[in-house]
Amino acid sequence: MYFPLFITTVLALIRASTAEIVESFHDVHAKDFDFVIIGGGTAGNVVANRLTENPGIRVLVLEAGGSPDGVLNISVPLFCTRATPLTPEDWNFTTTVQPGLNNRSIAFPRGHVLGGSSSVNFMAYTRGTSEDWDRYARTTGDSGWSWNNMQKYFRRNEKWMVPADHRNTAGEFNPAVHSFTGINSVSLAGFPWPVDSKIVEATRQSKDEEFHFNLDYNSGKNLGVGFVQSTIKDGARSSSATSYMAPQFSNRKNLHVVLHAQVARILGTSKNKGQTSFDTVEFTDGVGGSTIRVQAKREIILSAGTIQSPHILMNSGIGDENALKELGVKAVHHLPSVGQNLSDHNIITSFWSVNAKDSETYDLMERDAAVANEFINQWEKTRTGPLVDGIFNTVAFVRFPPDSDIFKQFPNHDPSPGPNTAHVELIPMNGILRPPIPTSGHYLTISVALLQPSSRGAITLRSNNPFDPPLINPNYFSNDFDIVLLREGVKAARKMITFPGLDDYIIAPFNNNATTDAEIEQFIRNGVATFSHPVSTCAMSPRGADHGVVDPDLRVKGVDGIRVVDASVLPFTPSGHTQAPTYAVAERASDLIKSQWRI
Ligand SMILES: Cc1cc2nc3c(=O)[nH]c(=O)nc-3n(C[C@H](O)[C@H](O)[C@H](O)COP(=O)(O)OP(=O)(O)OC[C@H]3O[C@@H](n4cnc5c(N)ncnc54)[C@H](O)[C@@H]3O)c2cc1C
Ligand SMILES: *[C@@H]1O[C@H](CO)[C@@H](O)[C@H](O)[C@H]1NC(C)=O
Ligand SMILES: *[C@@H]1O[C@H](CO)[C@@H](O)[C@H](O)[C@H]1NC(C)=O
Ligand SMILES: *[C@@H]1O[C@H](CO)[C@@H](O)[C@H](O)[C@H]1NC(C)=O
Ligand SMILES: *[C@@H]1O[C@H](CO)[C@@H](O)[C@H](O)[C@H]1NC(C)=O
Ligand SMILES: *[C@@H]1O[C@H](CO)[C@@H](O)[C@H](O)[C@H]1NC(C)=O
């Protein structure tokens, strides 16, 4: 009996000392939770980490997806395009039929895994501009969301690191605007390609004001061309799962994370004063599929992202009362803005064939498994080589001047938050990554993204079954300004490749032979994809406003017990990618929660 007892003791010790990230709620040995966090994604993991800094506070995280550990298509940066769509780590959503896209319905990837979309995204680290954040402060009436006030939250999140090749990066970024002490790693490219410096030099020499060199697009002003900063640590993806949920945090005895736990709804009880108080979360456990209810003693934190946070609110009876009733969902609290105002960036991709050697673009790797395997071996052994970076190392943020064609066509319509913020983002990539992969040749890709869409859409319920995916309607190009802006963006990309130093690299357009404005617009309607930056479906608005979903402290308007903390609360898209803003929102939210509960 001695031996088995010994083994049991060792097992018990291992369980007590390893991460409390479990596959089933039945493995959670605690009963009382101060906070229940719905979604172990980008934002949810930040809040879980910060609240459990206090050992007296017990937190439960319910995440529908599994673990990203050991998934090569997630951890290898250059494989980021393989992590979605239609993989075990994707929710596999598609949009509704989009009239603006010639009736196409397009893939709408979202991370279905611990770390959420930070585990599957393309890792670009962009904070938006000071004008973006000052607009958030203005529209919410809360100066706490201003650029200056948010700096401390960007800094808590960011841990700047040297890139995988350990080169001297002086002149590639401005250290004064970065933090070396945060939790989530950020670095410059660790395997720069010849085309990267070609692009930066050609634009630097061009003397075209739109394409001036910008040392650091995260300094508050994003205009110009510069080097991309990415959430990459030592050549591998840094997500909220690998950073905020690293073992030194997930080992905390007061933190419990359950994977494969899909939340259906939140339940409340009506109080005498008429304000409903929500304190119970209903979810399906991945093991056995049983329905379980847990209670939060203090608050429920809804961090299911821009698509599912409003979905869960509506399934809980919080939304437009008539729309809910029509589908047979009992309305508990009339809040018509839930799911409305969906705002998403979209992106159009052009290819050119180029003069390059096999080793100078990533085309060969895409069509030759032997080459790819060599790179994988190198990556696995040393975390160096072509796989250590995401799919773009340089970027151009371009603003159209007041006398440009677009503003002649749409006078008095400028959706940007101010004069120092770009309208479009141009993203050069060193080859073709998306099927069909050409069987020969070398390529340059430039994607163009719209940064401040004037079109707004909505997330609505498909049925009263909470496990049915919601209807996702971004309403792309329902406002004509957007397609004209993107068309001018395509022209800006075409201009960029004519600069001396790039012109002799380019051979010919590969997929973009459209010439007239009308043809370019058709090319866009037929080819545009989501840039995967949806926001605004649980938007912040001033306290007492007749629209909006959450107050500036992120508490759901008109009910007690629920706070939304994720990208959905941003009332406008930032003028860049959305993960850094989401991390910063979650860092500030953690402070707001701690201060309200004095913890
Ligand atoms: C393919 C792709 C590429 C991108 N590229 C970039 C980029 O390069 N740079 C950048 O800055 N941003 C990028 N983004 C956007 C960025 O990653 C997101 O804006 C950000 O991660 C959103 O964070 P979030 O916390 O709001 O949601 P998420 O990180 O998506 O977290 C939501 C979490 O909730 C879970 N969940 C949802 N519903 C339920 C439920 N019912 N029950 C339990 N759990 C649930 C999900 O599984 C997920 O883990 C990209 C996104 C995608 C999808
Ligand atoms: C990784 O992505 C590649 C390319 O899409 C795919 O063929 C492969 O099956 C993926 N690997 C896993 C383990 O899912
Ligand atoms: C998405 O599709 C993939 C491939 O078919 C599948 O393995 C995965 O389970 C799907 N994701 C969800 C959330 O159903
Ligand atoms: C899109 O569908 C609508 C409704 O069926 C139809 O009227 C319209 O002509 C279609 N548009 C295109 C470009 O096919
Ligand atoms: C959408 O957002 C705008 C701008 O913040 C606001 O004026 C409007 O009321 C919102 N609409 C809804 C339905 O919330
Ligand atoms: C332009 O490209 C499209 C799509 O690749 C192709 O079908 C068409 O024939 C091309 N037109 C010309 C004039 O080359």
From TrEMBL:
Residues 305-319 form the Glucose-methanol-choline oxidoreductase N-terminal domain. It is found in: Secreted. Residues 1-19 form the signal peptide. FAD binds at V113, V263. It holds the Pfam family GMC_oxred_C. The active site is at H533, H577. GO terms for molecular function: flavin adenine dinucleotide binding; pyranose dehydrogenase (acceptor) activity. Keywords: FAD, Flavoprotein, Secreted, Signal. Its cofactor is FAD. Its main location: secreted. Its EC number is 1.1.99.29. It catalyses: pyranose + acceptor = pyranos-2,3-diulose + reduced acceptor; a pyranoside + acceptor = a pyranosid-3,4-diulose + reduced acceptor; pyranose + acceptor = pyranos-2-ulose + reduced acceptor; pyranose + acceptor = pyranos-3-ulose + reduced acceptor. GO terms for cellular component: extracellular region. It comes from the Eukaryota. The keyword Cell inner membrane does not apply. Monomer. Belongs to the GMC oxidoreductase family. Catalyzes the single-oxidation or sequential double oxidation reaction of carbohydrates primarily at carbon-2 and/or carbon-3 with the concomitant reduction of the flavin. Accepts only a narrow range of electron acceptors such as substituted benzoquinones and complexed metal ions and reacts extremely slowly with O(2) as acceptor. This is pyranose dehydrogenase (acceptor). The lineage of its organism: Eukaryota, Fungi, Dikarya, Basidiomycota, Agaricomycotina.
